[in-house]
Amino acid sequence: MSHLIRSELRKYFSTRMWWGMTLAMFFVGALFAAFTGYFTLYGEMPVGQAMVSVKDAMPELTLVRMIYSAGIQFGYMLALVIGVLSMGQEFRHKTISNTFLAGPRRHQVVLAKVAALVVILVVNAVAHIAGSVLGGGILLSTAGVTLFPDAGALAQTFALMALILVVWGLIGLGLGVLIPNQVAALFLGIAITLIVEPLVALALSFFEGVDVLAKFFPSQATTATLSVFDGVDPALAEAMGAGGDQLTWWGGAVTLLCYALVMTLIGLLLTRRRDIA
Amino acid sequence: MTVSAPAEHPPRSRDAAIVVRDLTKKFGDFVAVDSLSFEVAPGRITGFLGPNGAGKTTTLRMLLGLIRPTAGTGLIDGVTYAQLDRPLQTVGAALEATNFHPGRSGRDHLRVLAATHGIPDSRVDELLTLVGIPAAARKRAGGYSMGMRQRLGLAAALLGDPHVLILDEPANGLDPEGIRWLRGFLRHLASQGKTILISSHLLSEVEQTVDDVVIIANGELVRQGTMEELHGESTALVRTSNARGLIEALQGAGLEAGDEAAQGPGAVRVTTDDLVRVGDIALAAGVPVHELRILRTDLERLYFQLTESPERQNRNRSEAGPPPSGPPVDQPPGAPGIPGPGPDTTRGGQR
After folding, report:
1. What dihedral do alpha carbons B96, B102, B108, B110 form, nearest 10°?
2. Which residues of B are less than 8 Å from A17 in CB distance?
3. Which of B81, B115, B156 sits opposite A6 (nearest CB)?
4. How many CB pairs under 8 A join A and B?
């Protein structure tokens, strides 16, 4: 089993994708944190009739957290891509035959991929967080705000960001098994999260009783996990795009883990039976 | 012209390295492999032959646990592939020459496989030297020629130093020089006592290499035996102006002889490989001899008859829509799930 994990890690780190992806994670973190930093530190938002400075309307921790985690939505899309490609590349280039010849007990191969993805996504998470701290840190310094107002709470945020990337990677893996065509899998994965999910959530909001389901959707659970709008005036939060009723941070994390678990199980079951022609 | 390997009849059943028993695979209504049974003797090179679409690749993939059989079993060393403890150290398989990630170097491709069995990098470099691509293997596989892909595939198969090798069309896409290299390489492996099962759609490609043949058509077994059995008994051809007299003289000497009209007027066929004796009998009988030679079995023709005779007509083909316009050896159009060794569509830097 540890041999199979080593093999999967070699697979990832022996193509150019690994550093391309790491760089992308870094720059996505840096750019989004810098932009969000600029708008929150120097921008004003309308609340009711008045324009308020965003910086003054927010607790400092929430402000800093919002800046550092600004790139997470783009980041987990990249994590989804990594997960899909982990399986999709094997089908695309037919290396799956060799993989299963070396690991004929296929559930072990899928579990090795899961373990390797955890390592790979933690590496990417470190790059992403480093980028965020750099990009956001520069803006925070210019505005004279402390970089780490509550180190403990921010450490938790960073850990949760890593968890989010890992979970979305595993969702991608399941998707990659479900749809062996990697382009179709990527398209579907991104279309569902960016277009279908918000539309369904909007549709649900018109129906009393079922509208609570929306907060369990993957993107909404992800936002909840980071408690981005903690302690912000609800009117301002709504103006900044907060999605109404949200899960607690741990409720969001558990929901995400459930998605990862379900997708991994789907991956295990489908992979066992599939003919590799 | 056959081989340097032991000439005695191959041991059957008990010691077989590979046993295929009643193996069947259906893809929907389409029967790709139809209760196929054969055995591969240890320490010999066995050619697994059949036209494109006959079910060779599907059979090999079932044997290797990549495709689930509809019925029947394929055993290697008495167990299924999935039951092998360290599969790469028992069986080496080279399936298709396109199984590489174009962005990964050939060497890293091997290192990925080596890691699964804890095989050291030194073994990887050793094999790259053995197949003759130590320098090229450090470049990305996307730019490899067909010959390099086949060599890399062989290196991958040999990684765990297995005693059974399963090679699917290893000569496909090789130039004459590459085919000659492959023959020598396979003989070298056979001399180490390895069991080799090598598939091909061309008998001529492997007839100088293999000891035994398993011929299938339409997913069914057509013939299994040694190359000697396939060649049949040696026959000589004599041409004379007095065929009747010569036949009588030969039969009088206890030889089996008869007309061979297919070889033109005055041709007589004798079941022997002793040309001197035939000549002496003719001289003693006072019959003139115009030609005297060993009649080679036209293996290619025999193979064609075995696999393409009307009752063997590939039903895959007739069911797959419009009748093919090309010659009968054409690839069946899009038979489901049977990747024929067709043109390489996944080459060249795509990812």
Report:
1. 0
2. 103
3. B115
4. 92
According to DSSP, the residues that pair with B138 across neighbouring strands are none
**Range of the structural domain that residue A11 is part of:** 2-273
Contacts of B337 in chain A (CB under 8 A): 275, 277
Chain B interface mutation, best of A92, A94, A98, A100, highest count of B Cβ atoms under 10 Å? A98
> Structural domains in chain B?
13-230 (3.40.50.300), 233-295 (3.30.70.100)
CB A162 within 8 A of CB A73: no
- The tokens describing A5, both together, are 């994990």
* Cβ distance of A3 and B117 shorter than 8 Å: yes
Residue B126: CB atoms within 10 A of its CB come to: 14
Quote the ipTM score: 0.87
Instruction: Give the Å distances, CA to CA, from A74 to A128, A274, B304.
Output: 10, 32, 60
CB contact burial B41-78 (16+ within 10 A = b; e otherwise): bbbbbbbbbbbbbbbbbbbbbbbbbbbebbebebbbbe
Answer whether B199 touches A (CB < 8 Å): no
Residue of A nearest to B64 (CA): A101
Kindly report, residue by residue over A39-70, the tens digit of the pLDDT.
888 888 777 777 777 777 788 888 899 899 99
* pLDDT tens sequence across A194-231: 888 888 888 887 877 777 788 888 888 888 888 777 77
Taking the CA of residue A180 and the nearest CA in chain B, the distance in Å comes to 14
Distance CA B273, CA A43 (A): 101
Domain count, chain A: 1
